Amino acid sequence: MSTRKANLTGFNPQKFAAAAGQPSGDPWARNEAWRYTGPFTRGNRFRGAFPGFGIAVVAFAGYMVYEQVFLTSSHDAHGAAAEHH
């Protein structure tokens, strides 16, 4: 048998939320609406947070491929660990 403990303060959050509801005549609703539409949607804000990141990733990956293909020599193939022993 599961009985809920009574809140000592007498405050019931469910009743409070039901009574509060949504404000019918919010004077700031029109002024707040622009924040979440058009170029200010969550996806667009995230895309603009790191300008040039995509180009940088492609350039870095291209350099890594170039380095592996063209800048390896026979000396590098043995590894740095062999020189220390």
UniProtKB/TrEMBL annotation:
Its main location: mitochondrion. It is a single-pass membrane protein. One of its GO terms (cellular component) is mitochondrial inner membrane. This is NADH-ubiquinone oxidoreductase B12 subunit. It comes from the Eukaryota. The chain crosses the membrane at residues 48-66. The keyword Transmembrane applies.
